[in-house]
Amino acid sequence: MHSLLVSAENGFTLLQDAKIYALARYLELPDLKRLAFHNIQDTLSSLYKFANTMVVTNVMALAQYTYAHTDSLANSEEPLRKLVSTFVASKLTLLAGPEFDGLMAEGGEFAVDVMNQTQRETTYQLWKRKEDNSALKTEVHSLKRKIEEMEEASDDDGGSSDSDSDSDSDIYSDIW
Questions:
Q1: Which DSSP string do the residues of 3-19 spell out, in sequence order?
Q2: 66 CB contacts (<8 Å, ≥6 apart)?
Q3: CA nearest neighbour of 58 among 2, 129, 120, 10
Q4: Are 100 and 57 in contact (CB under 8 A)?
Q5: For residues 147 and 154, what is the distance between their CA atoms, to the nearest angstrom?
Q6: Whole-angstrom Cα distance, residue 24 to residue 79?
Q7: What's the rounded Cα separation, in Å, for the pair 165 and 153?
């Protein structure tokens, strides 16, 4: 894996690997292309920890180079474009600022891809939240049934006095 210092070298490393990726793609060297892609992926996965102008500058330079030197594929997403747009979409708050705004204002495929990735992530998060809520509702329903079963068992045993069951009802009424 790359050794990583948050410095001007990051931008050079990202840009250098992007250039190697584009050249390997052009020359149809899949192993070299894959290596460059993984180097970029490793560097980006380390960058999310740091929020500084150097990181923003380096990522924006990577995005500009990637979109200038790779073509979108007719029937699928170009892997490096997808990696870059997914990274940018997932780190919008980290990357927000004049450089990012300027690149987005240019429009083009980069802006479209970032917005599509942002929409996908938002849709996924909403779906995940809905699934989490559904699981919680199921758990609450299950707990309510257990409480009712315990109350019925307690009533069948004749174990509590009327005053105890009244206070239990008051407690449970807050829950329902």
A1: ---SSHHHHHHHHHHHH
A2: 18, 22, 80, 81, 84
A3: 10
A4: no
A5: 10
A6: 13
A7: 13
Tokens representing 72 are: 């979108």
Q: Which pLDDT tens digit goes with each residue over 84-135? A: 999 999 888 888 888 888 888 888 888 888 988 888 888 877 777 777 777 7
Cβ neighbours of 83 (radius 10 Å): 18
The radius of gyration computed from the CA coordinates of the chain, to the nearest angstrom, equals 27
Residue whose entry in the numeric block shows the structure tokens 């449970």:
172
Question: Which of 5, 162, 27 lies closest to 14 in space, CA to CA?
Answer: 5
48 contacts 94 by C-beta, under 8 angstroms: yes
Query: Which tens digit of pLDDT belongs to each residue from 60-74?
Result: 999 999 999 998 775
- Whole-angstrom distance, CA of residue 59 vs CA of residue 62: 5
Q: How far apart are CA 15 and CA 99, in angstroms?
A: 17
* Structure token pair of residue 133: 């809520």
**Residue 66 CB coordination number (10 Å):** 22
What is this structure's pTM? 0.63
Q: Are 33 and 21 in contact (CB under 8 A)?
A: yes
